What we know:
This protein is of the alpha/beta class. It folds into two domains: 9-132 and 142-180, Heat Shock Protein 90, CATH 3.30.565.10; 203-318, Rossmann fold (3-Layer(aba) Sandwich), CATH 3.40.50. The protein has helices spanning 2-22, 35-52, 72-88, 147-157, 211-223, 234-244, 260-268, 287-295, 308-315, 318-321, and strands spanning 31-34, 56-60, 67-70, 95-103, 106-113, 161-165, 173-180, 203-207, 227-231, 248-252, 277-282, 300-303. The strands form three sheets. It has a five-stranded mixed β-sheet with strand order 2-4-5-7-6. β10, α7 (260-268) and β11 (277-282) form a beta-alpha-beta unit. α1 (2-22) packs across α4 (147-157), α2 runs parallel beside α3 (72-88) and α6 packs parallel to α7 (260-268). 36% of the residues are buried. Mean pLDDT is 81; it is low at 1-5, 135-144, 185-198 and 319-326.
Amino acid sequence: MERQLRQMVRLVDDLLDVSRINTGKFAIKMGRVELKAVVNDALEVVRSYIELHGHELAIDLPDRPVFLHGDATRLAQILSNLLNNAAKYTNRGGRVSLSAHVEDRTLVLDVADTGIGIAPDMLDSVFEMFVQVDSTLERTNAGLGVGLSLARKLVELHGGSIAAHSEGLGRGSRFTVRLPIVVEPELPAKPTPAAFISTETYRILLADDNVDFVNSIGALLTAMGHSVVITHNGPDALAAAARFCPDYAFLDIGLPQMSGYDLARGIRKLSCGAMTTMIAVTGWGQEKDRQLAFEAGFDHHMVKPVRFEQIEEILGNRSIIKKLRT
């Protein structure tokens, strides 16, 4: 039931995005974006779906940083839609891969699978609204044919192109995205992140039941010299806060056993809790969600998918975080 609900929410979001694009009411926030951050955000969305189907996931990215000029959230949405599509149309235990390389001033991204493939006469129409490559899929696996259409529209908004390739039914498929890259990353299109990066080290508590995500963030923070404690449920996080007295606490709202709101209230009651800067990490970003977070004692509200540069910015502005509560 939970998985079906997530699929329904994703479908509704995609439909709304397509509608906004078609009516000219869709805005993208362009900035300097690093490829690996985009890929990590996309994997955060689709990894559980791929694992649920028992697929092997292979990632092959350039060793050197590749920078794009685009909307980080929408770029991740392109990849997550393509990866989700690959997993959906591949029989259990298949292989899904994401690879990237640079050709001149263009980033070439390939999402491939060992799935059911695409008939030659369908290659030109798979990006049209409500087109499915195989109407024989079980209803629980089939979508409405919206994800690929949205992916193409988002790619085109970024000045890129997308194409479908397949050797035929039963032979798998490959989707190739081409996007312009930033040739001189040392000249960013927005204020350099270095202006926000903290030169101090802090005690940081991370509480999230997404083990891969929180461990990755923890490893990066530890590498920067911070002292990090990681927990995966509310009670453990509260006990750690009492013992650890963190300078910062990044708390998932949907924690098991105790909500992030209750956890924040509990931390504020600790002897050292008044000095902790608490950040709510959640998938909900409406004004009422922000207000709920602030009423629970949070200092800041962060909407998933979270980029590491957002965390760096908060760490670099500790002195003004208290002013963000409105």
